[in-house]
């Protein structure tokens, strides 16, 4: 019987825990721990930190007094209007602001010619960067094939079936059969466009590093350079600045499914020096060696066949790096000239860019700007708003011919 009484105690407990009061204390403590854990699991989750973004107008920009960088245009016998306007163009600004035109070999040639005769007319080959999907000459400029040096993963037709379009175009160039019915039938330039955005960031910085701002635009984008230069006077280039015309992007599951914005490539967008550095930054090891891939490799997985657009990819990459897009609309307008709504949202808002601009409108707008420049006085402050109010009133509301407004 004595043996049985000894065996009735737990065999594997140390003697110190054979005390009944101590066992009760341990039991109560365990229950309290379980209760606290249960209550903790029922707590309200902490609100997810959202990244801010805004859609213009949010602040009163009339407090910013800006002065034009342009000189008044003079009229000289024997000069055409393009040369006259370009003579007044403030070339010194291009040491701080870098224009980057994105096009493609398959772009409409009439639109491309109108672009080179208007928005891009005043830039020398050294001042304007042109990225395309084929190395070729555009007027006196060299269009750079921005896809030529992408990593070999892009050539995997299983992952990127649309990439075959690019390889076929290169083969046609080598065989001197470009610009034929075969190309029109088989080459889909839009399929190649999504691949250009990330390598454009790397190449633009490599070619023209440390510019204050990089202005990216497309063949049918019209830019009022005077207003853009004034607008950028109000921004710190070393801050993370990413601005343009807002379009809805992906939802972020890490931030409570928060919606995001990206800058529509058609109206153009601006990325600051600070944002470019954040975008292109790579981590290094103890001996200075890179420990991660460059931008176009690191995020290449986003450019799959089901992805619509490269501007969406770029916006998401910037978002992932903590740079939200500030949507300044309608200043960066996704409308064509004759499609701009005449309402309170647009009335007397500064206009910086237009999208889907027809070749005729591109040239007419350029001539209209020249006519305004003739009477402009460079010392008049804050014409940033009044010029565009005049533009809307005279050109859009009155439906007058641009050349005679």
UniProtKB/TrEMBL annotation:
Q: Which domain of life is it from?
A: Eukaryota
Record's bilayer topology term:
Single-pass type II membrane protein
Subcellular location(s) per record = Membrane
Catalytic class of the enzyme: transferase
Q: What is its EC number?
A: 2.4.1.122
Which PROSITE patterns does the UniProt entry name for this protein?
PROKAR_LIPOPROTEIN
Cite a single GO MF annotation. nucleotide binding
Identify the Gene3D superfamilies for this entry. 3.90.550.50
Q: Does the keyword Transmembrane helix apply?
A: yes
What keywords were assigned to this record?
Answer: Glycosyltransferase, Membrane, Nucleotide-binding, Signal-anchor, Transferase, Transmembrane, Transmembrane helix
In what pathway does it function? Protein modification; protein glycosylation
Membrane-crossing residues?
Answer: 21-42
GO cellular component entries: membrane
For this protein, the record's Pfam families field holds:
Fringe
Among InterPro entries, the record links this protein to: C1GALT1/C1GALT1_chp1, Fringe-like_glycosylTrfase
Q: Which residues form the Fringe-like glycosyltransferase domain?
A: 197-285
What the record says about family reads:
Belongs to the glycosyltransferase 31 family. Beta3-Gal-T subfamily.
This protein is called N-acetylgalactosaminide beta-1,3-galactosyltransferase
Q: Which organism is it from?
A: Trichoderma simmonsii
